[in-house]
Amino acid sequence: MTTLDFISVRKTFGPTVALEGLDLNVRQGELISLLGPSGCGKTTALRIAAGFEFADSGAVHVANADISRTPAHKRNMGMVFQSYSLFPNLTVTDNIDFGLRTRRMSKTDRQRRVGEMLELVELTAFARRYPHQLSGGQQQRVALARALAVQPRVLLLDEPLSALDAKVRTTLRDEIRRIQTEVGITTLFVTHDQEEALAISDRICVMSQGRLEQLGTPTEVYRTPTTAFVARFVGSMNELSGTLSGPGEVSVLDVRLGAPHATGATGAAVTLLVRPEDLTLAETGLVGSVANVTFQGASTLVGVRLDVLDRLVSVDVGQGAADHLTVGDRVHVAVNAANAVCETVSQ
Length: 347
Prior knowledge:
alpha+beta, six-stranded mixed sheet, 8 helices
């Protein structure tokens, strides 16, 4: 079973702590995304897995074997970079064949393997072309095929889609997932794009300041964030000021809301973090005026400026439900706080 484990991995660069005791298990055949803002430690973790950096303490295991001090070229990792890193003077075939040649495979075996990879990434018709004759998406497919050709134990992807335009990025994202699932390879995917992580991952490791904030499925990370950081970073959030009126209950203005995750002293000032889809336009609730209506196809975001809080909130309503609304209309906003994150306000 090819698993990848980070065990209390710590890494510093001078006074900067890049990783603070990272513990993470990537299971056999699983795709885990490392998601977080710049400087959170996700790329450092990937480079330590690849052998391009060594941890100050802790260990990295592959298939339960410690590879912490194994040189990069002996780890049998497949690496795909943001910048493709293809050899410009080699054809698609020769780029994919490069790693096989260095492993001294026979010509017959190399030809068979290259053919399999070209078919896997659907580039058979482009086999004799050079990188400059390919689109960005095609070049990244070649880079993926080259990484997989040597049958690595683990596939490492370092923001491989960030240099592509939005439409190509979405298409290639889905292709990477298809290929990863078909091959069944254990994969670590680094991204700062939450949409990519939610769409492609078996589990997401949300990171902040060198620490793991939350590890869970895309649904768990989005619907039940365990920290305010995760709530704000993954998806969009409305922030409502209120006070704790009892265990699992928050008062926002004069409206009492059931918030199961709210804990603390009664009367404490809190900020309630609520998804736009957990707000609805209703007959009763928080009162405000429509500030904007943004059509998004399947749904519409209605911006409502609440009267007393003087805060703009976004309400996600279904298709057609906001067609009658115009800026300035008076509305009520009902709040479902069942999945809300409650953050105590520092005094």
